[in-house]
Amino acid sequence: MYIDSHSHLFDVRNLSNSDLKDIDAVIVLSYSKATISSALDFCKSNSKYYCALGIYPGFANEYTDEIEKFIISNRANICAIGEIGLDESYEIPYDRQLEALHRQLDLAEKLSLPVSIHLRTKRDFETFFNILTNYKNIKGALHCFNGDLIDCQQALELGFYISFACNITYKGRVKLREIAKIVPDDKLLIETDSPSMLPASFARKGENVPANTHFVAETIANIRGCSIDKIAKITRDNAIKLFNLKV
Predict the structure, then answer these.
(1) Residue-range definition of the domain harbouring residue 207
(2) Count of domains in the chain?
(3) pTM score of the predicted model
(4) How far apart are CA 113 and CA 39, in angstroms?
(5) Burial class (CB in 10 A: 0-12, 13-18, 19+), 171
């Protein structure tokens, strides 16, 4: 029924079958050198898991020729390059983050794969959109979207999908819910970002799991005045299309 379009499920310590309730597929993404192997190995354990490989901005110093060759050698086993992006809140120099991002965008174009993008600050969004003017064939999703309306509109103009995570359920995220109301059906995705960022009803204690995608879908359905089944279907269809899933 649901597709969780962004998770780090290999980091969940106590995963059970109930944690996958109503889930048809989960995109499992690496974020560091150590987790690249973890993500690949983990995805072999269940046919619902689809792997994406990349180096997150907080670990940008770990992106090397060796890592790049490893990703290329596993092209047949991955559906995307990610999690990649920019985050000026980290101590990693921005120039190094930019270098890693450029190289991974180049790799995504070379391998004809979509990207899953992490952006946190206004500078991150603006820099990323400027970079994309040099990439005509990049497609992907802005994961756990937390930008403003202008950021959303720019992303949509560039053909990107907007993925909402469990933070949309938080009482204070009024502007985020307003943005979720206007994203076109064909550009909408949902995710958990497991194991972090539990839905509001969990009081942010414990581990997040794919089954909680339901809370994201329910919140968006309420915002948009439609059924939860509609949100489940359109986000499922979008994930299948973007990541070329065989669900």
Answers:
(1) 2-243
(2) 1
(3) 0.96
(4) 17
(5) exposed
